[in-house]
Structure formats: structure tokens, C-alpha cells
Amino acid sequence: MTYQPPVRDHVFLLRDVLQIEKHADLPAFADAAMDVVEQIIEEGGRFAAEVLAPLNAIGDKEGCTWRPDNTVTTPKGFKEAYAQLVEGGWPAIGAEPAYGGQGLPHVVNLSFSEMSSSANMAFSMYPGLTHGCYSAILNGGSDEQKSLYLPNLVSGKWGGTMNLTEPQCGTDLGLLRTKAVAQADGSYKISGQKIWISGGEHDMAENIVHLVLARIEGAPAGVRGISLFIVPKFIPDADGKPGARNSVFCAGLEEKMGIHGNATCVIQHEESTGWLVGTENQGLRLMFVMMNEARIGVGLQGIAQAEAAYQAAASFAKDRLQGRSLTGPKNPDGPADPIIVHPDVRRMLMDSRAVIEAGRAFLFWTALHGDLAHASPDEAVRQKANDYMALMTPVVKGFLTDKGLKVCSDALQIHGGSGFTEHFPASQYMRDVRIALIYEGTNGVQALDLVGRKLAADGGRGVMSFFAEMDAFVEANQADAALQPFTEGLADAKAKLQEGTMWLMQNGLMNPENAGAASTDYMHLFGLTALAYMWALIAKTAQAKIAGGDTDPFYANKLVVGRYYMQRVLPDAGAHLAKLTTGSELMMALPAEAI
């Protein structure tokens, strides 16, 4: 079974559920007519399936190769595929036209990114990180820096990275030691070691632009003294072409559990030449532009790997003969029935599909608010969109990757012993997706960010707006009998989320460890509720199609999977609420030496 891009589902979400064409009066959406978007998605799916997917297993088995001259070669076929990616203009979909981009909404770019990540997660990280580098320079760079670097990053001719982590410094960037020394010509000399740098060195782009966090001499201690620098592999010459080799190099590659096709590098800066982005000591704020975009992208990876793993598991379950159906043979002419007849196999497949389809909707819905935050002339729309982006980003990253791992694990389980071998793809999907729960801030950090910062921001304005939106949907649709499973399920989940939120407000302030102990369960309660809202939106759309006489089983199937989510997945919300309200007392009761 080879990966089949879910083009129909993407088009349904963008055209019918999110109705992006209703924003056609906004600049970012002016060229996003659905006939154009549909063609982009179809062609993007074809590129993912025909060019990237065949390289996925090759990249996993071959990996990247570091050489003593500090160069890195990517797996067989990657360089040629990257050239096709650039030639096709795929990196430019969501970038500004002023720098060679196509200017389409980010949500459209996200559609292509999901398919490319499903097809080949390790490969898709290269252009993904480059787009993040573009975004950071776009937001904080000088006009000169923008004109020099952005066109090359937009096209994909140059790659991009972010250099944050150091051996002693992961999540706590206040411990950062890399130093920057000002030079007479306005540049800086950067010295220090960065580790776990994805795409830090490779043979696919003609230049690599490192965004590096470093501390200028005399800067304040902690995160208040961190600045951001552009450090290109090759210093651009007077014509903007790659010139002299900078003194930044890859000292080695990490041996990893998965994503073997992506070069995860130890990057050594030995008085490398860099240029300050923005103002001194504001580097973390600028880097968070890239990190927040990356967190949405990591949530996408959770859904993308889940989709690929689900497809492989469903295909295997239809072919693998084992045992007989509990209600009598379904394959009477064969020695056994396919395992898809067994309820427990169906349980895992339905759990997976119910989460994937609503998770994708949540991802696209969040990205659409990101587009509105930038494009809408209405201040109230922008405020709400910005509130939602801040509030939902840790949920997208943490919840969707936790669920993505669960789907990949269930896909391996459905494969049985075959899944534990490398002859089938299930193992790679599980190994690749596992990093998504860790990088760009572990999921525990995302949960802490949600309860510690995002909930209370602006007096809780974002979460209260979300509550009000769900209440309005329930009130508007509760008289519709066909939607009753969805409105009732959503109302119940929303009530539980509101109860959990109130508990945190009352008990988290009294004892911060209560908030810390409750954070992951709260994030999952939030995610389950958000997906219930997505299923309600999907069901309303599908039901309207059916009521209008459309007999396509696509819509009836949506309602079945959505009702399954409400019956079999959403009840987990009650368990998460029960756990989060127990507080931290027993969690922290044992002395450290007794654990």
C-alpha cells in the first residue's frame, strides 16, 4: 500500500467547512478561488505521492552521511526531488509576492505541507524550516536583509535553519552560552556550539541561512540578554550570490531513532560572521515567530504521520487473513477472514480516523485564523484571530502529536508481528513521529504554556471567546435532530472544559504545582473538546449536503465517523477532568530519592 493523499478531504474542509472563498475580499485570499486551490492540492498530492513517498523508506534505511570535510550528503534521490520541489514553486505558496512568493493563504500551504509530510516527513522538514527562517527575517529583518535573503529562501534555492539548542541548554534558553562580538563593520563574530540542528548541513541547496541565538558581550544574563543573528554558510557577495565560506560547519550528525533522511547536525561556530536581526537582546521574541510557526508545523506532522500510518493499517487489515468473524465467515471461500472484520481491529481504525479527520480540521481552522490575523482589516476579527492563534498553538502541537503517536502505535498493532519488522512501513511511521512530541518544546512544556500563560492572557479573553463560539453553535443547532449527537456531545465537553478551566483558576493560583500537575490532562481535555467542535462543524456541513439531495457516500461516512468520535473518543474528556482536579499533592508526595 502506497500513501494516497487525502485530496478530497482537504478540498471538503477548505471549500465547504471553512468556506475560504467567503474571504475573497481580503488580499491574501483574492487569488484563492477554490478551483485554483483544488488544482494546487491535486498537483501537490501528486508530487507528494509520486516524487516524495517513494523516497521515504530509502531515506530511512540510508540516512544522511557526514564526511571529514564537514559536508553532508542526503539519501539517494533527495537532491533530485528537492530540485523538482524548487522548480515546481512549492516552497513559495504562502510567501509574500514582493519576495517571489505566490501570496496564497497559509492554510493552503498547510494542505500541501501535510501531504508532503505524510509522504516523507524527513524530507519535508527541509523546506518547512526554510519557511520558518523566512518568516523570522520577514518580521524582524532590515530592508536590506529582506531583499538579500528572502527571495532565495522563498524560492528554496537557499535553505534555512534555527540554531537554538546547546549541550547544556534546551528548553531553558537562559543558559545559552554562544557569544557574539561586535566588529567595526557592523557584523559580529559568533562562537559556540549548537546541537540537534535539523537541516544544518546538506547538499540540496546552494546556501544555508542559519538563524542563531547568541549573547552579545556585556548583555544581561538569562533570556533578557539573547540576540538573533543571520549566519549564512556562504557569505553573499556584492551580487547577492554565495561567496566566501563562513566559519560555521557541521561537526557531526546525530544518530537518531527516526527521521533518518533529515540531517540533524552538531553545528560549530568558530568566530563565524553574522549580522544582527532587529535590535540587541530581542532575539528570543523574534525567534518565537519561527518557533510558533514550527509548533503548528509539528502538530501537522502528528496528523500527517497518523494519516499515512492509518492508510497502511487499513490496507493491511483488508488483506491479512486471520480467524473468522464472530458473526460467521465473511470470506467463506478462503481459509480465514480478513482481520478488518474483527471489532477490536475496527476499534483501532475508527479511533484513528475519528481523530485524524477532526484533527486536520482543527489544524486548518487554526491556520485560517492565522491568515485572518494578518489579512483582515477588521480590528475585532484580528484580535480574536490572534487570541485563538496564541491559545490554540500549544494544543495543536501537544495534543495532535500525542494523538499522532497513538494512531501510529495502533497502526503497528494492527500489523501484528509484521509491524515490528522493517518489511512494512508501520515501524518507520512510529519512529519518525516520536520526535514530534519532543522538539519545538516538549508536550509537557506546551501544556504548561497553555495553563500558565495562554489561558490567563488578556484576562482569559481567548478562552472565553472560544466558549462563547461553541455555545453559539449549540444554541443555533440544538433543534436539528440530525445534529443532536453533535450538539449534545459538544455541549457536554464544553461544560467539562469550562469546569476544568475554573478549577485551574481557583487552584492553580493558590498552588502553582496544582497547575503543573493538571496541565497535560487539561491540554487533552481542551483538544478533545476542540475536535468535538470540529466534528460538529463537519457534521453540519455534511448533513446540509445530504439534505440537499447529494447521495455521495463521502458525506454519510463523515456522519458515521463523527458519531463514533462522540460516542467512543470524547468520553475520555471526563477522565481527564477527573484526573486534573485531583491536584498535585500525591503526585509530589514521594521524596525524590524514593522515586
Question: What this model shows, in words?
Answer:
This protein is of the alpha+beta class and 595 residues long. 54% of the residues lie in helices and 11% in strands. It contains 17 helices and eleven strands. It has helices spanning 7-17, 34-52, 56-62, 78-87, 106-119, 121-140, 143-155, 283-319, 343-375, 379-415, 426-433, 443-454, 461-477, 484-507, 512-547, 553-569, 572-580, and strands at residues 65-66, 72-73, 158-163, 179-182, 188-198, 207-216, 227-232, 234-236, 242-245, 248-253, 264-277. Strands 4-5-11-7-6 form a five-stranded mixed beta barrel. Helix 6 (121-140) runs antiparallel to helix 7 and helix 10 crosses helix 13. The protein is globular. The two termini are 45 Å apart. The relative contact order is 0.09. The model has no long low-confidence stretch (mean pLDDT 96).
Give a topology summary:
Blueprint: H1 7-17, H2 34-52, H3 56-62, E1 65-66, E2 72-73, H4 78-87, H5 106-119, H6 121-140, H7 143-155, E3 158-163, E4 179-182, E5 188-198, E6 207-216, E7 227-232, E8 234-236, E9 242-245, E10 248-253, E11 264-277, H8 283-319, H9 343-375, H10 379-415, H11 426-433, H12 443-454, H13 461-477, H14 484-507, H15 512-547, H16 553-569, H17 572-580
Parallel strand pairs: 3-6, 4-6
Antiparallel strand pairs: 1-2, 4-5, 5-11, 6-7, 7-11, 8-9, 10-11
